[in-house]
Design brief:
By secondary structure, this protein is an alpha/beta fold. It contains 11 helices and 12 strands. α9 links the parallel β11 and β12. It is globular.
């Protein structure tokens, strides 16, 4: 057994070796594709490495220092300056007295001020096996994550606060629906109405996607664009437009796709990160906690989030209404814009 110590805000342990094993999503890391992953955001991952998350506020303190001297080194006259405490970065730092934090609770807001700093620590032991993978001789890479669904929801709430609204109607489409669901669960006191368009409570229906792929039989170029992580922004733009044209829309219309994505800023890095975050979009067991009027809008021929997913949302959210668009795929607001506006307008007016 080998032991490593980690200080991070949010992380994934990637054990790397020779060939890449099959993974649930295409992942690319600075050190190559990982053979195995241990997710330290999940209770199961923390148990696997015999770890325990601990938390402490950090404080800014005034200390003795020296002014800049020759070559800008701190070798001049004595002065008073600032530092932080505790110095908890060392591997042998004793954090046993710190607050214990459950892995799934790390994204909760902590500390007390407008300017605040925090420590999160975990000590991990690399297990003898990670599923069927033997990590002997491998490299362990710790990835720090600063972009999570929870953070996106927090950013949305910061925008709400900045605009001065107490309550807002929240609309999310596709992956944006995952953010909208996170927001509704994290900030229910600020949600007046929730609109979910072509989205899902969890990306856990691969069999249904595969069956639909077999039925539609798209070309190899479409499959590559759909399954592979793009290597650059231009490739991402070409692939997304191809996938939208062939799989996203019910009616084949390349010009409509060009209009839809005309002002899009393409980022291959954002694409890769969003695919990783898909595993975090799993709130199926928490839909009953959402207690606001909710409108669910689903295209009959939506390849990515089929009607079965709209039905699951409708079953789980008590105060919900489900509307099916019979001539649409993943973009009912584009393929049936007049009906989409009418349905949304009517629903909002009834709840004003």
């Amino acid at each position: 057994m080998r032991t490593a110590s980690l200080v991070a805000t949010s992380c994934v342990v990637a054990a790397l070796a020779g060939s890449a094993a099959a993974l649930p999503t295409p992942l690319v890391r600075p050190l190559g594709r990982p053979d195995a992953l241990v997710d330290l955001r999940a209770a199961e991952g923390v148990r696997l490495v015999k770890g325990q998350w601990r938390y402490s506020d950090a404080r800014i303190v005034e200390v003795d220092g020296k002014s800049p001297g020759p070559y800008l080194k701190p070798s001049g006259a004595p002065n008073r300056t600032y530092d932080y405490t505790p110095k908890a970065g060392a591997a042998d730092f004793d954090a046993s007295a710190w607050e214990v934090v459950e892995p799934t609770a790390r994204e909760a807001r902590r500390s007390t001020g407008k300017v605040c700093f925090n420590w999160y620590r975990i000590k991990v032991t690399v297990p003898e096996r990670i599923a069927s993978f033997d990590p002997t001789g491998s490299t362990v890479a710790f990835e720090i994550e600063t972009l999570t669904l929870g953070q996106l929801a927090d950013d949305a709430d910061a925008l709400r606060s900045h605009l001065g609204y107490e309550k807002v109607a929240v609309l999310g489409h596709s992956f944006g629906g995952c953010v909208a669901l996170q927001y509704a669960l994290r900030y229910p006191q600020h949600v007046a109405r929730l609109l979910l368009v072509g989205t899902t409570a969890a990306w856990d229906y691969a069999e249904e996607i595969v069956a639909e792929l077999h039925r539609r039989s798209p070309g190899a170029d479409v499959l590559t664009a759909f399954l592979d992580v793009p290597t650059d922004d231009a490739e991402f733009a070409r692939g997304q437009k191809l996938v939208a044209t062939t799989l996203g829309f019910h009616t084949f219309d390349p010009l409509r796709v060009e209009r839809l994505f005309g002002s899009t800023i393409w980022s291959a890095a954002a694409c890769a990160r969003s695919r990783e975050l898909m595993a975090d979009c799993n709130v199926a067991s928490r839909l009953g906690d959402i207690d606001v009027p909710t409108l669910i809008l689903t295209g009959r021929y939506d390849f990515f989030c089929p009607p079965s997913q709209g039905a699951r949302l409708h079953r789980g959210i008590r105060a919900s209404e489900l509307v099916l668009f019979e001539r649409s795929g993943h973009y009912p607001f584009v393929e049936e814009p007049d009906r989409f506006r009418a349905v949304v307008g009517r629903w909002l007016a009834q709840r004003t």
